[in-house]
């Protein structure tokens, strides 16, 4: 069955897809968005987000100070270890300065800047009502503009010839339909919910990973694009992976299962041994390393240990911490060796040096003569009751994707730009994120490249419209 042709077909239903849809529609194109999820679960991982990171030159009503382009780029270099396409990254950061205004024009609202342990009040804008409210605003605007949306509609085949998209086959309620379009935007996320694909890079340990976001991001469109000649970019084992509560569901646990308390205690593995510096840097820049660190531990499990002084310094998990009046009792509740945990805590306490604790900055509270060290926020764990959170790797999204240029146009394996195919969001995040993560940058990638992809797709359609007929006058 064939349904009517569109100027632009967009695969995906999250932030990147909607920014592309709105941008393309404002560019005069007819637009269809196909979302694999049901309406209630629309939006991919955008449902679980809270904020976006954008450059800006001064404080605003919702940001406490300036965040210049160069500082943003330096932060990106720090978290990626330099593994980024500098030209694309700098372009994205420059474009991000206008996104705060543009996204508000699409109906999204921000709340006043946040203080506290997140340390993001200057760099990140928080959505009023969270990711779902942001998503609902974008859907309202898109639909008011005339964008069509079809839910429960999965792309199962792509007709691509020599870098030119011709049509997509979708599956909707058991029925296959063909959709032709003059341009195609892939904004359908990564493959983090495809455990078999994760195993190809990670091996069997991927069975112990929890997926923080949508179960619908299985990489179907990504795989078809690569098989059709799109140029691949990124490492299949690189991803946004954080330490989340081990009691979280397999899929869709979202932000409420993330744990921000690593910096306030110590982290031990199944053998009650520490394995990394918990105080390496401020949390928004380093929290996304902990998923990979836990993934490298036996059975992919670890435990964050802290005492009563730290209980109210961070945003807790949905689940209550494990609580005990002594370290041996805590070990028993966690199922780890009591004497080993007691020694680890004792050795840590003995290594803590005097300092002035300040959870808002890189303070001088550190250990000495201990490996691994704790370089900041080191306080003795000695005030009962004692607490622990069990954590596992929580995969947010993967970085393997398709290469794009500054027009968000896909690049083909032979080095040519695709004729009429564009990509935005997680499916091309590996262009910017070779590894690592900084809070809010996923939404930046989706918004900036989504807006560009939609704009360029509409321009591609206009450029290829038949010339109007002319009449010769005698």
TrEMBL record:
Q: Which Pfam families match?
A: FAD_binding_2
Domain called FAD-dependent oxidoreductase 2 FAD-binding: residue spans: 7-434
Please give the cofactor(s) recorded in the UniProt entry for this protein. Answer: FAD
Catalytic EC class: oxidoreductase
- InterPro entries, alphabetically? CobZ, FAD-dep_OxRdtase_2_FAD-bd, FAD-oxidoreductase_2, FAD/NAD-bd_sf, Succ_DH/fumarate_Rdtase_cat_sf
A GO term for molecular function: oxidoreductase activity
Oxidoreductase as UniProt keyword: yes
Q: What is this protein called?
A: Putative succinate dehydrogenase, putative fumarate reductase, putative FAD requiring protein
Q: What organism does this protein naturally occur in? A: Pseudorhizobium banfieldiae
Q: What is the lineage of its organism?
A: Bacteria, Pseudomonadati, Pseudomonadota, Alphaproteobacteria, Hyphomicrobiales
């Amino acid at each position: 069955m064939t349904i009517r042709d569109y100027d632009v077909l967009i695969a995906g239903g999250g932030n990147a897809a909607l920014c592309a849809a709105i941008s393309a529609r404002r560019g005069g194109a007819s637009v269809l968005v196909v979302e694999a999820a049901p309406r209630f679960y629309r939006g991919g991982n955008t449902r679980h987000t809270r904020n976006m990171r954008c450059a800006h030159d001064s404080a605003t009503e919702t940001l406490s100070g300036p965040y210049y382009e160069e500082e943003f780029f330096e932060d990106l270099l720090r978290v990626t270890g330099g593994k980024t396409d500098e030209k694309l990254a700098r372009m994205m950061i420059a474009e991000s300065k206008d996104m705060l205004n543009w996204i508000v024009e699409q109906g999204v609202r921000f709340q006043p800047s946040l203080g506290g342990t997140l340390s993001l009040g200057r760099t990140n804008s928080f959505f009023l009502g969270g990711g779902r409210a942001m998503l609902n605003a974008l859907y309202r605007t898109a639909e008011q503009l005339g964008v069509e949306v079809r839910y429960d509609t999965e792309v199962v085949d792509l007709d691509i010839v020599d870098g030119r998209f011709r049509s997509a086959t979708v599956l909707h309620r058991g029925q296959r339909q063909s959709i032709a379009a003059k341009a195609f935007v892939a904004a359908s996320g990564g493959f983090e919910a495809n455990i078999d694909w994760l195993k190809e890079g990670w091996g069997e340990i991927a069975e112990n990973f929890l997926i923080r976001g949508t179960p619908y991001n299985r990489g179907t469109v990504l795989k078809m694009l690569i098989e059709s000649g799109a140029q691949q970019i990124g490492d299949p084992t690189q991803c946004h992976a954080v330490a989340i509560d081990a009691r979280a569901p397999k899929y869709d646990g979202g932000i409420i299962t993330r744990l921000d308390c690593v910096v306030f205690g110590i982290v031990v593995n199944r053998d009650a041994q520490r394995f990394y510096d918990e105080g390496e840097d401020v949390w928004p820049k380093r929290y996304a390393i902990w998923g990979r660190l836990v993934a490298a531990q036996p059975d992919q499990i670890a435990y964050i240990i802290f005492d009563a002084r730290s209980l109210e310094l961070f945003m807790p998990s949905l689940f209550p911490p494990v609580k005990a009046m002594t370290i041996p009792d805590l070990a028993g509740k966690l199922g780890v060796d009591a004497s080993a945990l007691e020694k680890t805590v004792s050795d840590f306490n003995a290594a803590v040096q005097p300092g002035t604790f300040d959870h808002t900055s890189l303070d001088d509270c550190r250990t000495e003569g201990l490996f691994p060290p704790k370089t900041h926020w080191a306080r003795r764990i000695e005030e009962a009751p004692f607490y622990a959170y069990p954590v596992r790797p929580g995969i947010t999204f993967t970085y393997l994707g398709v290469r794009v240029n500054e027009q968000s146009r896909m690049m083909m394996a032979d080095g040519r730009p695709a004729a009429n195919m564009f990509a935005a969001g997680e499916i091309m995040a590996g262009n910017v994120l070779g590894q690592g993560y900084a809070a809010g940058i996923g939404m930046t990638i989706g918004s900036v490249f989504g807006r560009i992809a939609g704009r360029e797709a509409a321009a591609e359609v206009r450029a290829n419209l038949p010339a109007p007929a002319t009449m010769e006058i005698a």
